[in-house]
């Protein structure tokens, strides 16, 4: 017997066949290792390549079926035909030529000529070999196993189910988006008002339906965002897939199907079960089986005609199958394969290479123009402390001067400096007080919520006198009154009947219909002498009362003639006890209460009362009568004491109210007081921390890294590039940390392995009907025997959905893992996510899916160790029907889901009830950032399959083109109408160049896979040419892309620059702790006070005014640019050019962490029609040093709020007061002093 190596080598060759009865059967695997074969291997192999060859008769008789057939034939007619065989000699005789018919995909019979060979083995042995007829029923069953195109089998049902799900669900999602797009402009068109007017979209129906028209040009002088650059990558994907799809549908599909017998005629019968479906009959497998039909198939079955001396045998000899190597089913099969290879070479590879090279050149020119012209050739990098321990304890100015002296002098004659530093900023350690800013944000939000509820507690209602009055607690019972004097001043102001100028409104308090009860401690009801109630109607000290109509009238009782006890009380006395806003503490605590004490010489009417916080002169309790009257000041009760009582007015008069049962307005205002006080305190603490940190920077202590801006800064040793070149792109918390990129790639690798193992059983379901697969996995036997709808769903739709969901989960986890990478650039983080997603999809959805499906398909041949390579290649083609089902499911749904944004839409509706302030609404409707990993996801999948499988199964072109077109429609709409670039507004197309290069390398997949499949069929010439084409494609792509337009490299720098950088590296790595004894460079002189002050001032290393870095972004931070954020509403016109609370000018040229330069937050109040918000804003700014703004006035009528026509026409805007008159009006309308 041969060695294992010999049997393995022979197992790769074609099968040998022998004749048993009227059937041509395959040799058993163990025969190839027996001595009778190995002794004469060359002779057997040579003859087997031409015709069937029979083993010795002693071997044939070991086959039970053949032994029975021989025995029956010998006993029935032992003299008719005897074939003797020995192991010594063999003789082969050609008998006749016959014509057979076979089916085509159109059901037309075609005639094919075959040469029939009958083998007789003559030997000294006289053992008879008889050829008897086989079972006709078994033959018919085997012939009808496989399906032809057009048959409704499990593959057809699977495609129908997938198409139905995609159409129904996809149309629902697209329809829902079309409905919500106009109803929710904040969700689906925020760029129409969120960005500057010159960047707003002008999308028309034509550009929406034809998204490849009028794209932003890469040759434009204006910078392009990452989304606009991605549009060109999307369009290139559509072009590449479109070229391959047209060739597959118009060229490969006719060559595969026209005049070619279907698989039921050429494929081998499946003796262990299984079958090929109707969709597989439209693949390349149909042409390959026509080139090399199975000898057991119906097409190769012919009737033999024996010579005259063997006519008795001819009468009993039925059909037999001929060797596939004798002749193909159609004579043009090999020519068709060559034509397909030519189409691949001339149009698919060459045409795709043209698209790739042209787009790469455009991106390369744009990168050069962007870096040199738009960025001025400057880089923005971060140097962490662990990369430069020698720079420890060095100030910014000193380190900047050292770098400029070491690197600035390194120049070449008449050339530009290769390394020139223009700015350096030290990054301090701010983690110790970073939580203060988070706490301030929470307090700010709580204060704005409380203010919004307070403002919404009052509203204007029309009165009978054609005016309006301020009422409290809209929606509450009208009997409830504000009795704690916490309402705005207008609530308590009595009207004189005059209207407010300009608005036609007056604020009145409803006059009670019944006389209020007298306070037992006072006999007087005092009024404000300046009020309209007093005007020339009553004398000072005159008794008054309230009549039955609720009006104040003189009291005619006899007591009114008594001497006026208040006649000696001047107006100044009243004013001296009137509380003002200045009575309140700066931290928002309760105001001081003044309590008049009893006089020793008072009359029976002596009383005491408390002055209510925030009351006016008309609200004061009566004062003690008599010359010895005096007023003492009593400290307010502690807010921590819950048992302390305070005097609050009830029914218009002072009463005692416990803290255990405060009024609703009092509870609300307590929150305002506490939040306001805490916000003021946090502002002071943060300002102190900022000042102390800048002092540390001036001394060079407690530094974690440096930001360096300059030409060639990327070449500084240990530099981490800020790809976005913006402040928002820097991840300040990661400065000084290890990046952990290796851990990220390990996670992605483990995730890919887990995903690969997870989809293996689902791929097994997709090949459940593969020949012999269910024989070794009995669980799949019911599916293998069924052709109904349930079998199609189980083998097609269900596993496809499972694979889609598993892959989507893996992509989301990859995105999550990328956020854990501690790099200093957000753009770099997103690039890592995209690259990991690219490789994950390439490995799992293409390489792993095709490989596993092919191996599962070839289980039978692998077990039998016969023609394993051929069946593995057939399995790769068979797996394309499952890819077709996957693409049907995602072609319509994925673009629709990308447009609908279900997660953001869900958050939008869930947070709708919790949104009460303008800032919360701004954050809820803020546009999302553009994410290339999700935007290009369908394009990556389409390119992978278009460059590998589309010529194996041309029908893939239909869902591929549909998905690419709809994805381009969705992508362009999202980029131009929804997404903004939060971190890198205008970035270098580095990632675009990377993607285009990988697309070019993927062009070689199609000829590579095509060549391997042909080699598995032993088509050496065509297969070798196809593999050579794949290699040439790779070399051309490499030479015409990154080798033609190389990126800047360190080794290309001049030798003097490289030497200076080497010296700088040694200086950076020097441990400053061991070099304290060495003399340091000069320190800043103390002779100039201005120099000493400059060291303590933040931003003294400010970048030059003409420096283009850092680049601007479209993102608006509402904590910094609050006033600008207030104008991002669809109902407002273009925003003003200048904002009063915008610190942008003061921060220009500074690159520090946000904790260092964060300004005081601006309170953002919601505008109301009653003017309460403006009163609160004036109060906050004047008495609490908290800058406020009020939401700009609406420009269109809202039915949910009352707004008079005159106010709507004027559309008043809130800003800083422009005149003293306006300031006076605001102060007059401010709430009562608390």
UniProtKB/TrEMBL annotation:
Keyword Transmembrane helix applies: yes
Record-annotated membrane-spanning stretches: 156-180, 240-260, 337-361, 744-777, 797-817, 838-858, 878-900, 929-947, 953-970, 991-1014, 1020-1043
Keyword Transmembrane attached: yes
Pfam families given in the database record: RSN1_7TM (PF02714)
A single cellular component GO annotation: plasma membrane
Origin superkingdom: Eukaryota
Domain CSC1/OSCA1-like 7TM region: 768-983
Chain intervals for the UniProt region annotation (Disordered): 495-523, 549-644, 1066-1086, 1183-1234
UniProt feature, compositional bias: Basic and acidic residues: 570-584, 1066-1085, 1198-1225
Entry keyword set: Membrane, Transmembrane, Transmembrane helix
GO MF terms held by the record: calcium-activated cation channel activity
Protein name according to UniProt: CSC1/OSCA1-like 7TM region domain-containing protein
Taxonomic classification: Eukaryota, Fungi, Dikarya, Basidiomycota, Agaricomycotina
């Amino acid at each position: 017997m041969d060695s294992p190596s010999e049997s393995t080598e022979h197992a790769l060759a074609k099968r040998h066949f022998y004749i048993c009865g009227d059937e041509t059967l395959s040799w058993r695997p163990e025969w190839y290792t027996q001595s009778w074969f190995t002794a004469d291997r060359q002779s057997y192999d040579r003859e087997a390549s031409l015709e069937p060859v029979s083993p010795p008769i002693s071997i044939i008789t070991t086959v039970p079926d053949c032994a029975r057939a021989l025995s029956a034939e010998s006993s029935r007619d032992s003299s008719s035909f005897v074939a003797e065989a020995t192991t010594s000699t063999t003789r082969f005789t050609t008998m006749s030529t016959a014509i057979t018919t076979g089916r085509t995909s159109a059901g037309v019979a075609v005639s094919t000529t075959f040469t029939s060979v009958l083998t007789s083995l003559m030997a000294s042995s006289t053992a008879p070999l008889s050829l008897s007829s086989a079972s006709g029923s078994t033959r018919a069953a085997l012939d009808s196993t496989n399906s032809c195109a057009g048959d409704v089998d499990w593959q057809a049902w699977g495609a129908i189910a997938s198409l139905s799900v995609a159409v129904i669900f996809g149309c629902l999602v697209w329809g829902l988006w079309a409905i919500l797009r106009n109803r929710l402009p904040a969700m689906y068109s925020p760029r129409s008002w969120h960005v500057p007017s010159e960047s707003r979209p002008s999308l028309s129906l034509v550009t929406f339906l034809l998204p490849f028209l009028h794209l932003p040009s890469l040759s434009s002088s204006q910078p392009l965002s990452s989304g606009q650059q991605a549009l060109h990558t999307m369009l290139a994907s559509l072009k590449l897939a479109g070229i391959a799809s047209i060739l597959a549908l118009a060229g490969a599909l006719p060559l595969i199907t026209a005049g070619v017998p279907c698989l039921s005629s050429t494929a081998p019968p499946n003796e262990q079960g299984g079958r090929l479906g109707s969709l597989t009959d439209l693949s390349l497998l149909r042409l390959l089986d026509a080139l090399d039909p199975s000898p057991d198939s119906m097409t190769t079955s012919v009737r033999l005609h024996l010579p005259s001396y063997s006519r008795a045998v001819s009468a009993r000899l039925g059909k037999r199958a001929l060797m596939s190597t004798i002749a193909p089913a159609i004579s043009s099969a090999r020519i068709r394969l060559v034509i397909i290879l030519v189409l691949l070479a001339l149009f698919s590879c060459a045409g795709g290479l043209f698209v790739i090279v042209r787009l790469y050149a455009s991106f390369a020119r744009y990168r050069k123009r962007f870096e040199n012209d738009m960025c001025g050739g400057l880089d923005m990098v971060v140097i962490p402390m662990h990369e430069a321990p020698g720079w420890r304890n060095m100030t910014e100015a000193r380190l900047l001067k050292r770098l400029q002296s070491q690197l600035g002098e390194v120049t070449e004659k008449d050339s530009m400096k290769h390394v020139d530093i223009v700015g350096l900023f030290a990054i301090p350690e701010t983690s110790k007080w970073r939580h203060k800013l988070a706490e301030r944000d929470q307090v700010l939000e709580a204060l704005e919520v409380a203010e919004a509820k307070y403002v919404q507690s009052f509203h204007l209602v029309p009165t009978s006198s054609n005016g309006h009055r301020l009422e409290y607690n809209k929606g509450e019972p009208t009997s409830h009154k504000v009795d704690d004097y916490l309402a705005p001043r207008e609530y308590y102001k009595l009207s004189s009947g005059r209207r407010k100028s300009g608005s036609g409104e007056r604020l009145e308090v409803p006059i009670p219909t019944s006389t209020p009860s007298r306070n037992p401690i006072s006999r007087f009801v005092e009024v404000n002498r300046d009020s309209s109630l007093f005007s020339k109607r009553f004398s000072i000290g005159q008794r008054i009362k309230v009549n039955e109509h609720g009006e104040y009238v003189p009291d005619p009782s006899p007591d009114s003639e008594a001497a006026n006890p208040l006649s000696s009380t001047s107006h100044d006395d009243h004013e001296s006890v009137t509380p003002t806003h200045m009575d309140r503490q700066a931290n928002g605590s309760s105001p001081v209460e003044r309590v008049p004490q009893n006089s020793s010489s008072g009359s029976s009417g002596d009383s005491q009362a408390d002055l209510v916080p925030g009351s006016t002169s008309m609200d004061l309790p009566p004062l003690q009568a008599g010359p010895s009257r005096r007023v003492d000041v009593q400290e307010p009760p502690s807010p921590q004491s819950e048992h302390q009582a305070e005097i609050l007015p009830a029914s218009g008069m002072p009463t005692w109210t416990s803290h255990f049962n405060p009024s609703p307005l009092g509870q609300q205002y307590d929150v305002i007081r506490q939040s306001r006080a805490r916000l003021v305190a946090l502002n002071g603490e943060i300002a102190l921390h900022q000042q102390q940190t800048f002092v540390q920077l001036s001394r060079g202590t407690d530094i974690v890294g440096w930001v360096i801006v300059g030409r060639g800064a990327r070449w500084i040793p240990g530099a981490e590039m800020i790809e976005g070149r913006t402040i928002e792109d820097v991840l300040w918390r990661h400065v000084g940390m290890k990046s952990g990129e290796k851990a990220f790639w390990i996670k992605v690798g483990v995730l890919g392995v887990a995903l690969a193992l997870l989809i293996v059983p689902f791929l097994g379901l997709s090949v459940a009907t593969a020949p012999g697969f269910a024989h070794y996995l009995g669980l799949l036997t019911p599916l293998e025997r069924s052709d109904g709808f349930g079998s199609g769903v189980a083998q097609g739709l269900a596993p496809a959905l499972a694979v889609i969901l598993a892959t989507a989960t893996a992509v989301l986890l990859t995105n999550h893992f990328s956020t854990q990478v501690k790099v200093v650039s957000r753009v770099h983080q997103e690039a890592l996510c995209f690259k990991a997603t690219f490789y994950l999809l390439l490995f799992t959805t293409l390489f792993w899916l095709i490989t596993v499906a092919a191996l599962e398909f070839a289980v039978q041949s692998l077990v039998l160790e016969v023609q394993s390579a051929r069946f593995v290649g057939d399995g790769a083609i068979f797996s394309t029907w499952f890819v077709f089902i996957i693409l049907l499911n995602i072609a319509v749904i994925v673009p629709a889901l990308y447009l609908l944004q279900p997660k953001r839409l869900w958050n939008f509706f869930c947070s709708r009830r919790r949104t009460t302030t303008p800032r919360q609404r701004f954050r809820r409707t803020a546009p999302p950032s553009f994410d290339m990993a999700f935007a290009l996801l369908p394009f990556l999948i389409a390119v992978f399959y278009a460059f590998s499988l589309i010529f194996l199964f041309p029908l893939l072109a239909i869902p591929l083109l549909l998905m690419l077109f709809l994805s381009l429609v969705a992508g362009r709409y999202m980029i131009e109408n929804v997404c903004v670039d939060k971190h890198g507004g205008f970035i270098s197309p580095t990632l675009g160049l990377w993607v285009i290069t990988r697309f070019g390398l993927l062009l070689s997949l199609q000829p590579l896979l095509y060549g391997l499949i042909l080699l598995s069929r032993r088509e050496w010439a065509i297969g070798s040419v196809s593999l050579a084409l794949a290699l040439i494609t790779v070399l051309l792509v490499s030479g015409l892309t990154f080798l033609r337009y190389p990126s800047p490299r360190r080794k290309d720098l001049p030798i003097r620059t490289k030497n200076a950088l080497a010296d700088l590296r040694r200086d950076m790595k020097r441990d400053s702790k061991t070099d304290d004894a060495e003399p340091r460079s000069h320190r800043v002189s103390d002779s100039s006070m201005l120099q000493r002050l400059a060291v303590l001032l933040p931003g003294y290393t400010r970048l030059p005014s003409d420096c283009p870095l850092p680049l601007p972004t479209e993102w608006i931070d509402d904590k910094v640019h609050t006033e600008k954020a207030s104008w991002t509403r669809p109902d407002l016109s273009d925003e003003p050019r200048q904002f009063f609370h915008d610190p942008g000018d003061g921060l220009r040229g500074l690159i520090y962490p946000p904790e260092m330069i964060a300004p005081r937050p601006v309170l953002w109040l919601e505008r109301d029609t009653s003017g309460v918000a403006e009163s609160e804003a004036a109060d906050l700014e004047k008495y609490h040093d908290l800058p406020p703004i009020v939401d700009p006035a609406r420009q269109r009528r809202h039915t949910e709020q009352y707004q008079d026509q005159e106010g709507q026409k004027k559309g008043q805007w809130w800003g800083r007061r422009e005149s003293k008159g306006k300031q006076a009006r605001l102060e007059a309308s401010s709430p009562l002093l608390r």
